[in-house]
Structures are given as C-alpha cells and as structure tokens.
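quick one, 233 residues, struct below
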Amino acid sequence: MRFDAKLSSNLTWPIQGVLFDLDGTLIDTAPDMALALNRLRLECNLPPLPFEQIRPQVSNGARGLLEIGFRLGPNDQGFAILRDRFLQLYQQDIAGETHLFSGFDEVIDWLNQQGMHWGIVTNKPGFLTRQLLKALDLKPSVVIAGDDLLRRKPFPDQLIYAAGHLRLPPQRIMYVGDHERDIQASRAAHMPSAAVRWGYLDGERPIEDWLADVILTNPTDLLALLSLTPNAP
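---
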C-alpha cells in the first residue's frame, strides 16, 4: 500500500460507496479547459498562457481561470460576459483531449465488479458535467453538479444529497477530491475523505494540511484502501 498518511480513526468500515470530484480527481480536463481559455484570450487580442500556469486553477472552474487569464473576479465589470463566452468555447470541444486519469479504468471496473455504488459530486455546472460524462461513456450511480442545489462545496449539502441517492449513510461513503474544499465538505458531511496528489493542486495550502483521512498518490491506491475491509454491510 502506498498511502501518504496513516489511516484516520474517522474512517468507518466497511466503506460501501465512493463519490468522486470530477475535474482533477477522476478526469483530466485541464487540456480542454486551457484550450478554451487561450482561445478566449486570442479573441481579446491577448497571447496564450503557458499550460503550466493554467493547470493548477482548473479545479477552480471559470472563476479561477478568468482570474489568471484576465485578472477579473465575479464582481468585476465584464466578468459575466467573458465567463459565458469561455463556457461556450469550452462546451464546443469539451472532450477533445479530456480523459480518465491513468488507473481509473481499473478502479471503475473493480467498483462495478464489487457492486459498489460510485458517483460524482462536482462544482462544475450540470450541463457541462452531464455532457462530459456522456462523451466519456461514464455511468455513475449518482451525479450532483454545482448548480443542482442552492449551496455547493465546501458546504456539505451535495455530499449528503448524494448519500441519500445511494441510500447509504455518509459515514459509509468515501469522498475523493483534489481541493481543500472537497475535504472541508467531507468533514462537514461526516463522510470519510481521500485527498489526491495527482490533481490540480492550486498551491494555496499543502495537501498535508487539509485534514483528509488519507492521501492517495495514484488512483489504484484507492483499490488497496477499499480492499482493507469487506464491502458487505
């Protein structure tokens, strides 16, 4: 096993379901998100930004990308127009280079074989989330997007709602994410959490300080973790 931290005493066995964040956790959307941002910059007569500068902000969605691309926030004039155009450009080529992170084919196959429910909880807008999952032929048991409820992560509402869909108590579900707000939402929902090193870590705080129950280095580490205990109630 290759866990970066000791298993937290907060973990409640057996884990009977898994929920994933989307961008930067389950799938690598950075190439297509970066392409849309740079196309928008070109439309505004600005040069492209290096991919390495864009990637860490992808988990922060349009807000984070427009911040680095145009130094604009949600309260600034012109933000809404640029956001809508960015989303339009992104939707036009939403799955050109997007793919599962390496190892997740094996993880999803294992979850399906075990009969373990898995789902998506993301702050990404619903119309983009569902279009992307369809393009990648991913069929989770539940999908809760950023505009499905009034509040989104770091509030726990989406995770609790997803647990209800799975008909499982939050304590029996693990949430896997690449941003501190994922772990904050997990803790508020009393749901075990796993932070991942392969995601779009934005550098605001070290992953070790997020207080996740476990830190994973590779997607297949999740299999070793879930295999520590039987799946049945």
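The beta strands are 17-20, 27-28, 99-100, 117-121, 142-144, 173-177, 193-196, 214-216.
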